[in-house]
């Protein structure tokens, strides 16, 4: 059982401030100086989660992704490398808001009772962190929580978020039929690089890509990965790789900046015809971009990546003679209308739309044999069901062409990080596809033209009064708002707009798209005024 005295003594060292903490879509996330008590309790919770699952290894990642350097946060990773089970988000929130030793012990007891925890198998927790200066002290708070709750802690050091997810899955599947890989950072690079080399064999060498790493953890990790790849096979120039200068992380750089500003990051001057991409601060998001001959910036976001991946996999499945495998795409309401049109009409791929937040996309994607999921902001991956993996593994080829396709499909399942969105792995997938198609970014971009779109953040008195349904595309409260919104939208060609409360910021987001830039801007402003 738990040593109550130990928890009591340790909790006195991590006083809880008067803040309402919520474990949301991004875990806990806020200004780092408010997070000491939260990390301590995340330690206790991770231990409880592991006890609950008979000692299976749980992960904790300390990061605030694309958010400013002063922020930080923590997310729990479940045994298969997936996000924490939703029911436990409530326990996380409960514990975080317990303000003294008595309330903490009470919250712990209640979690133990509600989930039926037994302690005999022990608890194992691994953790990693990004490049933020606040990580060192938050790691100590986390360790205090883990030790107080009697878990065995293992510090994996500086990691990208997807690397930590990978490690958790590897550890928990080691020695089973389902083994995911070597549970080391090196194992991760070897798995990715081997698959990448297989897929690039015999394909034209691409010109070097320029990768903006947002001055975050992606920079040293990509540099490490490059050691496993011969320059003649593939080369990358890393920009925004300064992880030591204070204030640089995510500053005017990274996937979120490029997506929201629709322009190149600081430190990348776009030469027409070349390829560029950006990771975010913890390297789980990816967007591509390029300049055309006139020097005009073009973004290839998560929707474009999903379209590219889905088409490629469908073709490969056909060539490999495993047509029984169905491919589907999962999007959110933020997906550009043109992308949805392209996928459903032109490619005849089933598309589902779900609530914002990767866990929703991930779960929906599991319903397909091959589920391609991406948020427009570049967070996503491809999931292969156990049956699909088995078919791909066991099918025997009848022709050399089929043999090659099967080999490539197998390598693709190894290349893609199936635990969570992974900027490095996703980038390698895109690079493979461009090499196979012999496409430039511009040729890839020609699949469809994005409708002009605008995302507006509206600060309101109380964002929680905004309630939605239909995958967030319809407002149900305040009453009457949707009818007013519909009336406005109907005045615009190809108009679409929706309103929802952000899960990560104290604001309401208004999304609008329409046939032209001007119409889009008018539509966005009109709807924002409706909300305000
Ligand atoms: P919110 O703040 O709930 O809109 C944002 C992103 C999500 C997701 C989460 C988690 C947009 C419009 N929203 O959510 O897609 O990435 O952060 O980081 O990009
Ligand atoms: Zn991120």
Give short descriptive properties of this protein:
532 residues; alpha/beta; 4 domains; 5-stranded mixed β-sheet; binds 2-acetamido-2-deoxy-1-O-phosphono-alpha-D-galactopyranose
CATH level-two architecture of the largest domain? 3-Layer(aba) Sandwich
CATH topology name of the largest domain, in short, is Alpha-D-Glucose-1,6-Bisphosphate, Chain A, domain 3
**Sheet having the most strands:** 5 strands, mixed
Strand order of the largest sheet: 1-3-2-4-5
Low-confidence stretches: none
Rg, rounded, reads 23 Å
Distance between the termini: 52 Å
Strand content: 15-25%
Total strands: 19
Domain count, please report it: 4
CATH class of the largest domain: Alpha Beta
Output the number of helix runs: 18
Instruction: Quickly give the structural class.
Output: alpha/beta
Give the distinct bound molecules.
2-acetamido-2-deoxy-1-O-phosphono-alpha-D-galactopyranose, zinc ion
Instruction: State the helicity in percent bands.
Output: 40-55%
Description:
The structure is a single chain. The protein has 532 residues and is an alpha/beta fold. It folds into 4 domains: 4-158, 3-Layer(aba) Sandwich (Alpha-D-Glucose-1,6-Bisphosphate, Chain A, domain 3); 187-300, Alpha-D-Glucose-1,6-Bisphosphate, subunit A, domain 3 (Alpha-D-Glucose-1,6-Bisphosphate, Chain A, domain 3, 3-Layer(aba) Sandwich); 302-419, Alpha-D-Glucose-1,6-Bisphosphate, Chain A, domain 3, CATH 3.40.120; 453-531, TATA-Binding Protein. The chain is built from 18 helices and 19 strands. The chain has helices at 4-12, 36-52, 86-96, 101-115, 135-148, 161-173, 185-200, 218-226, 255-261, 302-319, 337-346, 358-365, 386-394, 400-415, 423-437, 441-445, 481-489, 517-531, and strands at residues 28-31, 57-62, 71-77, 124-129, 152-158, 209-212, 236-239, 276-279, 286-291, 297-300, 327-332, 351-354, 370-374, 380-384, 453-458, 467-469, 474-477, 496-501, 508-513. Strand 9 and strand 10 form a beta hairpin. The model has no long low-confidence stretch (mean pLDDT 97). Zinc ion (ZN) binds next to loops.
């Amino acid at each position: 059982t738990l040593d109550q005295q130990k928890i009591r003594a340790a909790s006195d060292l991590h006083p809880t401030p008067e803040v309402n903490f919520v474990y949301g879509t991004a875990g806990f996330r806020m200004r780092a100086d408010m997070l000491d008590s939260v990390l301590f309790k995340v330690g206790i919770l991770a231990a409880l989660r592991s006890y609950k699952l008979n000692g299976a290894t749980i992960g904790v990642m300390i990061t605030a992704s694309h958010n400013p350097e002063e922020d930080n946060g923590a997310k729990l990773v479940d045994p298969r490398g997936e996000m924490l089970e939703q029911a436990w988000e409530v326990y996380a929130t409960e514990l975080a808001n317990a303000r003294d030793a008595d309330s903490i012990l009470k919250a712990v007891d209640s979690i133990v009772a509600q989930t039926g925890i037994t302690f005999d198998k022990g608890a194992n927790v691994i953790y990693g962190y990004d490049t933020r200066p606040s990580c060192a002290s938050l790691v100590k708070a986390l360790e205090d929580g883990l030790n107080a709750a009697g878990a065995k802690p293992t510090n994996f050091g500086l990691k990208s978020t997807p690397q930590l997810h990978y490690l958790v899955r590897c550890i928990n599947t080691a020695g089973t039929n389902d083994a995911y890989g070597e549970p080391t950072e090196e194992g991760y690079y070897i798995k990715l690089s081997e698959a990448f080399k297989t897929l690039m064999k015999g394909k034209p060498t691409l010109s070097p890509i320029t990768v903006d790493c947002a001055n975050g953890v992606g920079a040293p990790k990509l540099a490490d990965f490059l050691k496993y790849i011969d320059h003649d096979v593939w080369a990358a120039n890393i920009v925004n790789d300064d992880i030591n200068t204070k204030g640089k992380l995510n500053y005017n750089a990274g996937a979120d900046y490029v997506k929201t500003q629709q322009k190149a990051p600081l430190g990348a001057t776009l030469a027409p015809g070349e390829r560029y991409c950006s990771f975010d601060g913890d390297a789980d998001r990816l967007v591509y971009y390029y300049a055309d001959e006139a020097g005009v910036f073009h973004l290839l976001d998560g929707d474009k990546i999903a379209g590219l991946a889905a088409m490629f996999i469908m073709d490969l499945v056909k060539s490999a003679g495993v047509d029984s495998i169905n491919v589907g795409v999962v999007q959110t309401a933020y997906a550009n209308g043109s992308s949805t049109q392209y996928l459903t009409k032109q490619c005849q791929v089933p598309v589902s739309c779900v609530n914002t937040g990767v866990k929703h996309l991930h779960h929906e994607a599991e319903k397909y044999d091959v589920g391609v999921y991406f948020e427009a902001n570049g967070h996503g991956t491809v999931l292969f069901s156990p049956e699909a993996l088995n078919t791909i593994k066991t099918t025997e080829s009848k022709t050399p062409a089929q043999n090659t396709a099967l080999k490539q499909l197998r390598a693709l399942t190894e290349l893609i990080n199936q635990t969570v969105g992974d900027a490095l792995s996703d980038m390698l997938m895109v690079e493979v596809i461009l090499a196979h198609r012999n496409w430039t970014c511009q040729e890839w971009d020609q699949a469809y033209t994005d409708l002009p779109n605008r995302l507006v953040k509206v600060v309101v008195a109380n964002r929680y009064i905004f309630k939605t349904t239909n995958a967030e595309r319809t407002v149900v409260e305040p009453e009457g708002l949707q009818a007013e919104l519909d009336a406005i939208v109907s005045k615009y060609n190809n108009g679409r707009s929706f309103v929802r409360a952000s899960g990560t910021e104290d604001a309401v987001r208004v999304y609008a798209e329409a046939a032209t830039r001007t119409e889009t801007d008018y539509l966005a402003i009109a709807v924002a005024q409706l909300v305000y």
